[in-house]
Amino acid sequence: MKDPDRAVGTGCFLLYLYFILDFFLRFSARFSGYGRLRPTVLVFLIICGVLFINRENLKKRFDDPILKCALLLIGFIAVSLPLVEYPGSVVRNNLNNFVLAICFLFFTALIVDTDRRLRWFLFVFVGCQLVRILEPLYMNLTQGYWGGQTHLQGGVFADRLSGAPADVINANELGFVIVTVIPFIHYLLFPLGWKSKILYAGLMLAMLYALMLTMSRGALIALLVVVFMLFKESRHKLMLLGVAVTLAVVGWSLMTPVQQDRYISLIDRDTTGGASVDGRFMGMQAEFRLAMRRPIVGFGVGTTPEAKVNVMGYRQASHSLYAELLTEVGVIGMGIFLALLWQVYKRLIENRRRFRALHVAKDDLYTRLNTAMIATFWMYLVYSINYWGLSQYYWYLFAGLAVSFGRLLRLEDEKRQRLAAENEAPDQVESLKPRFPLAQRKAFKNP
Question: Given CA atoms 13, 15, 21, 26 in this order, what sign does their dihedral have?
Fold first, then answer.
């Protein structure tokens, strides 16, 4: 019997899980000849076809404010395409990346629509990120692999841990992946049994060590945001503070002088890495000045590097999501995107209010997941100051998860209310009966 909560079949959900595995683990770079089949495009088209066939079942779900904002963003990009600076570059080179990124929002929101699917989705997504973290770390420990470098002074370079050879992420992006996983591991794994706690401790130590090797200052700031959110929600604040201080002291003692210097540069500009910090801030300011050349509709999706070449004389990806939004989609597009983020945050806060109204225990899976997502949201918001994202997956997948999770929670709330009403019905019927002793009721019936 078909689950009434499901809009599409199990096959479509399994295809989406495969799509996630293929996207994050990059099968085309791992298996020769795999990419010639264009499986990513094929699976994408099949999933879109299945969703189109089941459009009647999905119609009501598009009333969600988050999905409405996403559709509005797509509509604005389509309508403003003839008005942007580089429409040809958008269509030829950049639109496919945006479509691939935003599809995570719709696929997650529309396909992950049962509790079991949500659990499998989280397992696969978090598992993929752990592979992306542990694989380069293992290669570093066993083969001396680094994958990236950073320029110091005088033509000297220092090694930084980046993604595995099959991956495409640099050191900063690897740090971002690490900090993304930490809240989910903390809230979804630690509260379980003692075996899970041992696994949690091992994974956390490995991820923090890998983060240290990336020398990503932006990821360190993002980690501090996550730690603050964990501390804020913790019932054992003193113990958590002690663990954090201990890990910080041990981590600092394990760092090389170059690594220590790079992290110190966040607060001391006289260090070797201080110049790169100033350069990053100057780059952000330059991007905002660039955006002011076309402030209404922007230069076009994905055209920040091209705009920099033509206006500033050098080609470089954006160093800030907010500058990127203003540069590529202008004030209007930026407003729509930020409205999307606001709707996501409202959904998470609404979920928390619903938990409190229902008196749901803090160790409930849904409660823990919502707390992890709130921590991740604030981390994303801060990290986006130093990271691009209009054509990257992370905000869209997170928004899709918020839609899916919020809908499941609402359905659960409705079921509980319905069961409560059914349980109260007999009492209400009983209260309508005459409150007289049995003998008196018989006397009334047979006077």
Answer: negative
Q: 366 exposed, middle or buried (CB, 10 Å; 0-12, 13-18, 19+)?
A: middle
Indicate left, alpha or beta for 412 from its phi (over 0: left) and psi (-120 to 50: alpha): alpha
Q: How far apart are CA 247 and CA 206, in angstroms?
A: 12
Place of tokens 């209010």: 353
What is the chain's pLDDT, residue by residue, as a tens digit (447 residues)?
Answer: 345 567 788 899 999 999 999 999 998 888 888 777 788 889 999 999 999 998 888 888 898 999 999 999 999 999 999 999 989 999 988 999 999 999 999 999 999 988 899 999 999 999 999 999 999 999 999 999 998 877 666 667 788 999 999 888 889 899 999 999 999 999 988 878 888 889 999 999 999 999 999 988 888 999 999 998 888 877 777 888 888 888 888 888 888 887 787 778 777 665 665 566 666 777 778 888 888 888 899 899 988 888 888 888 777 777 789 989 999 999 999 999 999 999 999 999 988 887 776 655 556 788 889 999 999 999 999 999 888 889 999 999 999 999 998 888 888 777 777 777 777 654 443 433 343 344 444 443 443
What would the two tokens of residue 120 be? 């499998």
- Does pTM surpass 0.70? yes
Answer yes or no: are the C-beta atoms of 121 and 112 closer than 8 Å. yes
Contacts of 205 (CB under 8 A, 6+ apart): none
- The rounded distance, in Å, linking the Cα atoms of 427 and 102 is 50
What is the distance between the alpha carbons of residues 161 and 29, in angstroms, rounded to a whole number? 19
